[in-house]
Give the backbone structure.
Amino acid sequence: MTATDIDFSAVFPDEVITHTRVRDIDLPGGAGTFALITLDNGFDHTKPNTLGPATLVGLSKALDALKVRAEAGEIVGVGVTGKPFIFAVGADLKGVSHLTEHEQALLIGRLGHETFAKLEDLPVPTFAFTNGAALGGGVEVGLSCDYRTISSGVPVFALPECFLGLVPGWGGCFKLPNLVGVEKALKVIVENSLNMNRMLKGPQAFELGAADVMFEPVTFLEDSLAWAADVITGKVTVQRPEVDRDEQKWEAAIAAAKGFADLKTGGAAPAPYRALELVSQARTATRDEAYAAEDRVLADLIMGEELRAGLYSFDLTQKRAKRPVGAPDKSLARKVTKVGIVGAGLMASQLALLFIQRLEVPVVMTDLDQERVDKGVAYVHAEVDKLLGKGRIGHDKANRLKALITGATSKEGFADAEFVIEAVFEEMSVKKKVFAEVEAVVSPEAVLATNTSSLSITEMAKDLKHPERVVGFHFFNPVAVMPLLEIIKGEATDDATLATAFATGKALKKTTILVKDSPSFIVNRLLGRFMGEVAKVVDEGTPIEVADRAFAGLAPMPPFILLGLVGPAIALHNNETLARAFPERFYVSENLRRIVEAKKPAIYIWPEGKPVVDPEVEALFEKPADPVVLTTEQVRERVLSVLAEEARLMLDEGVAAGPQDIDLAMITGAGFSFWNGGLTPLLDRTGVAEKVTGQRFLPQGVASVPA
C-alpha cells in the first residue's frame, strides 16, 4: 500500500481541495498535444491553492492517467500552472494539530514525495509555469518538473518552512541545492526564512536560477506554451550553470548557514539544523535516499513543539489579526476623508506617508515653525520619489500622492478632518495642550488619536469637552515595516470612536489589537520588563555580551543592540514611566541614565561590521563591589521568569483579551519568533509559566503537541 491509498479525511476533515484540472492544448508550430494541469481550489486569489492530502491524491491520480497517455504517444509534454495570481502556497497544515502519532506524520511526507515523484517520472518533458504566488510545496512542485518558467509579476516565491518550525520536506532540501548550488539554496531555505520570513519576487527567483526563463504577466501562459513547444521540438536548448559539488566548499556553506542559524535561534529551534543536515546529504544522496531522509525529518518536526507553536503563530496572524477581539461593530465607524497630523518630525512624517498611500485622502501636517513643516513634507515627497524610482508606482500615482500632503504652522486646516493624530514629544502636558488646541478647531465627532507609546489615554482626554473621541493609536517603528497597531480605549472612549479607529487601522493594512488603557500597553510594557531585568543583570555584574547571547531565538535581536535601535533615551523614558506605575517590579538602570546623559546613541560600535561594546559606554558603567556573573542559561531563565509574571498580571488586569493577543502583539510589534509562538507558548514549553505563576497560559495542544 502506498501513501496515496490511505484515507486522511479524519485528520484533515476541513481540507479545501485544490482540484487538478487537465486540458489538452495544441502547441504552436505543430509541436503536438500538450496536457496542461491547472491547480484551482475554486475560490478567488484571496483563498490561495494549498496542497492537502486529498489534493495530493487527486493530483496523483491525474498524473497516473497522464502517464498512460504519454506512453501511448497521445501527449508530448505536461505543464502545471495555477489559477489567476496563485500557483500554490504550500502544504495545507490545518490538520497537523490532529496528528498525534509519528507514523501519521511520516505518511504525510511520503504522500507528497510519492505524488511529486510521479510528476518527475513522466516519460515526456514536464514544465512548471509559475504564474503567481509560490510557497513551500508550491515551489517544490516546480522543482519536480524538468523545466520552469516564471512570471515577472510573481509577488512571493519562498521556502518559508524553517520560519514555522518545519523544513522544505517534499524535495526542497534535495532539489534546490542540486539546481542552483548550495549557497543560493541555503539563502532561500535558511537565511531568508529566519530573517523574518523574507521572500523573493519573480525576477529574484529567476535570477536565483529557480526558473529557466521569465515572461511578463500579460502574456505569461501564451509565452510559456510557445517556449515549451520550442523546448520539445529542440529549437531551444536549456543550459544551466553546473553546480559545484566540491565537498569542502559545500560543507563550508553549510557551516556558514549554521552560524547564521546560531545567531538567529541560539540553537533552540531544531528546524534550520535539520534542514542543514538534509542539504548536506543532498550533495551525494540518491533521490530515494533524500526523500526517505526528508520523510523522517518531517515526521520528527511535525511531532515537535516548535512547529505546533509556529502554526499557532500563523493562525494568529492570519485569522485573529483579521477579527480583532473586542472591536465594536464596524457599522459604527465614521468615514475618514481627511487626516490631520500634529507634528512633522520623523514619526509624524512616516505616518503621513502611510496615510496618503493607504487611505489616499488629503493629509495636513502641522508643526511649530515653517522649517519643520517643510522638512516633514519634503521627507514624504522623497519617499514617494523612491517608490517611483523603484518602479513600485507610476508618475501619475506619484504626483497624486504628493498632491495629497500639505503642511502648515496653523491647525486651522484640521477643521474638516475626521481623524487627527498627534505625534509630538512624549510628555503628558505637551499632548494635553495639543489636543486642547485641536478640539477648538475640529468638529465634535472628529476622532483625536494619540501615538503615545506609554501615557494614559484617559488622563490625556479628561480635560476636553469631548473626551469620548480620544483613542490610543500606537504604531511601531519603522511604521512602514512593523505590522502592529495597538488601539487603546480610554475610560471615556465611545464605540463610534473605537470603531473608526479599527476601520482606519484596517485600511492602513495594520494588525490591530484592542488594549486596555494601562502604562505602556502590551508590547512596551513587556519589553520594559524584559529590558529592565536584562539591565539589572548587567548592573549586577554579568557582561553585556553574555546577557545579549542569552536571547538568541527569543527576541529578533540581542537586547543591547535593540537598545541602540530604539534609542537609550526612549528606552529610559519607557522604563521610568513603568517604574512610576509599578515601582516594585520595574527597574531603572542608573548606568542607562548615565548613557543618556552622555548622549551616547548606542551601546555598541561596529568596526568591520561586527558589534563591539563602545569603550566610552563601558567606561560609564559603575561596577558593583560584589559582582554576580550569570551564565547565558541563568540570564534567560531569570528574564523569562519576570516576563511570565508580567504577562499573567496583564491578563489578570484585562490589559489584553487573552494570551493570544499578547502573542500576536509580540510577534507583530516586537518581532518575536513564530516558532516560539510569540511568548506564552515558550513560557509554557519551558515550564517557566507553571513555575512562576502556577499555571500554563494555553491549554496543552493549542500551541503544542496534544498530551
User: Anything to note?
Assistant: The chain is about 45% helix and 10% strand. The CA atoms of residues 197 and 340 lie 34 Å apart. The radius of gyration is 28 Å.
